[in-house]
Amino acid sequence: MKCRNILPIVFGLALSLFAQDDGQAPTFVSVPQIGNITAGSPIEFEIVITDASPIESVRLYYKTGETRGFTSVEMEKDVNYIAEIPGFEVIEGVLEYYFWAKDAYNNQAFYPEGGERNPVRIKVGRFESEIEPKRFSIQMLYPEPNVQTDDDKPTFVFLVHDPDHLLDKNTLRVALNTIDVSGKLIRDGEVMTYIPERQLSGGSQEVRILLEDQGGKPLFMKRYPVSIGKGSPVADRGERSVWQDKLKINTNVGLDSDYDIFYGKEQPENRPMDVHKASARVRLRYGKIQLNTSALLNAHVIDEKAHDLSLRRQPLNRLRVDFRSPLLDVTFGDASLEFTELTLKGTRVRGLSAWFKLGWWQTAYVQGTTRQLIKPIVETHPDSTHWQMMRNITGDTLFVNHDKGTPVREFMGLSTSMDFYRHFRLGVSAFKSYDDVSSLNLDYEPLEDHYLFLANSVLGLNSELHFNHDRTVLSAELAISATNDLRADDSLLIHEGGLDTTLLNNINDLLGYPLTDDIFLGSAQGMGLSIPFPDLDDFDPASYLIDDVVKRGTYRIAFRTPLDLKWLQFDLNSEYFRIPANFVTIGNPSLQTDIMGLRSGARVRLIKNQLSLTGRYENTFDNVAGNTKNQTTHTESIVGGIGLNFYGFPMVNYSIRFMNRLGEPSEGYENPEELILNDNMTITHTVSPSYQFTAFKTQFNVNASYMLMNYEDANSTDNYNTNYLTQSLTTALTAGFEFPLSITLGGGFSITDPEDVTQAGTRFIIHSSRIGYKWMNNRLNTYIGYSMVDGFRDKNGLFDPGESYTDSNEDGQYNEGEPFLDEIQLDNSKFTLKAGAGYKIMKNFTIDGNMDLIMVNDEVDTEKEYNEFRFRMKLKYWF
User: Fold this and answer.
1) Is there a contact between 1 and 806 (Cβ–Cβ < 8 Å)?
2) How far is residue 771's CA from residue 785's CA, in Å, rounded to a whole number?
3) What confidence score (pLDDT) does residue 483 get?
4) How much of the chain exceeds pLDDT 90, in percent?
5) Is 596 helix (H, G, I), strand (E, B) or coil?
6) What Cα–Cα distance (Å) separates residue 672 from each residue in 623, 669, 717?
7) 132: number of Cβ within 10 Å
8) Cα(837)–Cα(583) distance, rounded to whole angstroms?
9) CA 376 → CA 12, 50, 315, 558, distances in Å?
10) CB 519 within 8 A of CB 528
11) Cα(628)–Cα(530) distance, integer angstroms
12) CA 698/CA 737 separation, integer angstroms
């Protein structure tokens, strides 16, 4: 008897475990990028997510120099998780990004750790040869050198490239004209800033950067000329030269053609056979005024099915007009404004957004849509056996075939703040978002039952004390959300909630959508108010504000500050928060809910950053409202770490993390003795060494990261054992030669060993390499490389559901002692070969070609095997 039921298996470290809430957030294993990163070219990110529990959502957050807030995109699950930043949005400058993932039990994680505060920063150049700086360099990004600016108090921004950590071993001096401002520099990773204490005088200025060794020998020196204020016209060049000096126009146009062909399986709907993208961007600057215009058009020429499907999906075409000035910024098109953490962050809105700046007062406004209309397809027939039966208004019977559409989701938000004396900011933020039921124009009301029409409004108050050039900040935020189903009834609001019909209609007119009984009853289903509904018959505003809005509401209080001494640098951060399960914000999809507690951390750096000590403490619990779960789980984490970075020795970082989770019955639970309360401990060790050295006139950079995690559950028994041990290792080696050759090698593994003898261990191996070479004085750059992810889960020596067996007793089920075929449970791999070339035809004209050959092999289920060939060609012209 043959019985097969092999479930799709996610690449991960904990595939062998039972689905459970172990309190462990998803773990990230980054797949190295092999292709080039240039302006106008799309950037594909691939990452492996591992978790003992099912993964619910993975998102990529990114931000460029032209956007005020982070934009988020949902990552798609192929073999690994993949997302792409369109080339249309990849511009010259600094690109920031981080990843976020959440499992089915609301355990969340960021990559890199703390990425929402300190994202990864990479430089994007116009051509590939421009994005490989020298071994040490400091580039001034703002004010732009040799460009006149009317900003008489600019924030100087520098991009630091320091692979050899020369700043830690030598002396950096930065002077503005003749004044040394080195002690006032603020460094955050690769970005360094300086804020003048007073306005600068008009005319020519000079920024001088000097790096000296201990003996005073110059190692690096750079001068940047800056022009402040209105310059004097040159008499012999006439008035036209003044306009030419002030007016700066940059234009680029591009054409991308992507071809993607699958062999061995049907072409996936989300991977069209061909995509052609035409893009154009115009950047105009006159003094302090900027006008940026960009457009992107997508088309499918060969793949007719993809063309038809694109009409049933959210549009990918983009049009954006961005106007910036000292007082007002206005954007028409797609924008991602950022209000606050609890209101709007990471949501793209298509429409109008504006940012008004007047001294201490700033106001942001956004109005548009977060989802575009996809019209439903409704067909009727007088007689059918497969369609849905309905009756029209005359009572006649009809049969309807309904292909669902997507209603327009309207969005309107406002944020305003006043920064008193540049040190105390008070603000309010609010938005409303709702599905427009009428946009679908459904002829038959019963068809609306196929949809969930939501409305969400959020109001937030925030305050902030900030000193020390915004390095010392004490902030607080309070927010309220209201979420309801637009098609629900409103009788309880009137009869039980105490709202009369006139007042309810006035509220509905103000919001633009109807309030329903979900506001009154829906808190347990993720609907309703995030605070208790007020008793309008006996309403005490002061008591309601303190006891319900604040104590039982949603809030965050955060503090961070540095302390810089001659021999010590100290950084402290702390946050106390309460976010109940029924707090809902469409504006921030990565906000973790149903959690309350304290997070604190400190870092001490000694001996010019050669020795660092870190510590973090976290104490949180879920079931904040007390009625969403049978038990409340308290989570306590303690992290300690040390970093060594002494000259001439490898840099080593070590950390250890203890996490303890204890559950207790929820208050009022009737049978607490029946509960199996959470009681588990996780200990995680992480070691990350790195070393740079030079040998045979070649610079080498070696780094590695090893993680060992031990999970022990006090509830484990011989029959149900969830204990496991996980270890992972990632390594990388880069070599830079005197001639234009670069080599990168990477590899790693992850192994999960369950303590349960009925479960086999799981192993994953990742390795990659890249070789790049530049020809013809860097006009032609080429590369070839590969990456491979291999997963294996062995036999366990026991019968598992889905395995073949001989039914000796002929009772239709497996009985102990009957022969069976013990099968390998996982044995698959994904191999990607990449090659590409970029040629600079002229100073402002480039052509790029990239090829990917992907082979997926599965020894357990050969139906999952396939090959994929991808080719991308890009033309770009700028002036």
Assistant:
1) yes
2) 6
3) 92
4) 28
5) strand
6) 16, 6, 20
7) 16
8) 50
9) 38, 37, 15, 46
10) yes
11) 13
12) 5
Cα 643–chain centre separation: 27
Q: What's the whole-model pTM score?
A: 0.77
Domains of the chain: 133-243 (2.60.40.10), 342-346+357-372+407-587 (no CATH), 595-646+655-664 (no CATH)
What whole-number distance in Å separates Cα of residue 879 and Cα of residue 473? 43
Amino acid at 194: Y
Q: 806: which 2 tokens?
A: 């001989």
Tell me: the pLDDT tens digits for 712-750?
Answer: 999 888 888 889 999 988 888 888 887 888 898 988 888
* 281 exposure class (CB count in 10 Å sphere: 0-12, 13-18, 19+): buried
Which residues have C-beta within 8 Å of that of residue 365, sequence separation ≥ 6? 352, 353, 354, 356, 413, 414, 415
Residues in the chain: 879
The tens digit of pLDDT for each residue in 326-365 reads 899 999 998 888 899 999 988 989 999 999 998 899 999 9
Q: What is the C-alpha to C-alpha distance for residues 382 and 388, in angstroms, rounded to an integer?
A: 11
Q: Band the pLDDT of 460: cuts 50, 70, 90.
A: very high
Residue 343 is encoded by which pair of tokens?
A: 């209101």
> Is 505 in a helix, a strand, or coil?
helix
Q: Rounded CA gap, 824 and 180, in Å?
A: 67
How many helices and strands, by DSSP H and E, does the chain display? Answer: 7, 48
- CA 452-100-53 angle, to 5 degrees, is 75
Burial of 368-398, coded b for 16+ CB within 10 Å and e otherwise, reads bbbbebbebebeeeeeeeeeeebeeeeeeeb
Measured distance CA(618)–CA(388) in Å, rounded: 54
Largest alpha-carbon pair distance within the chain?
Answer: 106
Query: Please, are residues 857 and 828 in contact by the beta-carbon 8 Å criterion?
Result: yes
Q: Is 102 exposed, middle or buried (0-12, 13-18, 19+ CB in 10 A)?
A: buried
- Which two tokens mark 151? 């900003």
> How remote is the C-alpha of 529 from its chain's centroid?
28
Which of 403, 324, 337 lies closest to 368 in space, CA to CA? Answer: 337
DSSP, collapsed to helix, strand or coil, labels residue 501 as helix
Whether the bond into 143 is cis, omega within 30 of 0 = yes
Q: Are 558 and 574 in contact (CB under 8 A)?
A: yes
The sign of the CA dihedral 797, 799, 804, 810 is positive
Under DSSP, the state recorded for 553 is S
What is the residue type of 388? Q
Question: What residues contact 315, with CB distance under 8 A and at least 6 apart?
Answer: 372
- The pair of three-digit structure tokens given for residue 56, joined into one six-digit string: 């619910």
Could you give the CA distance from residue 89 to residue 520 in angstroms, rounded to a whole number?
43
Other Cβ atoms within 10 Å of 288 Cβ, number: 13
At residue 37, what is the residue type? I
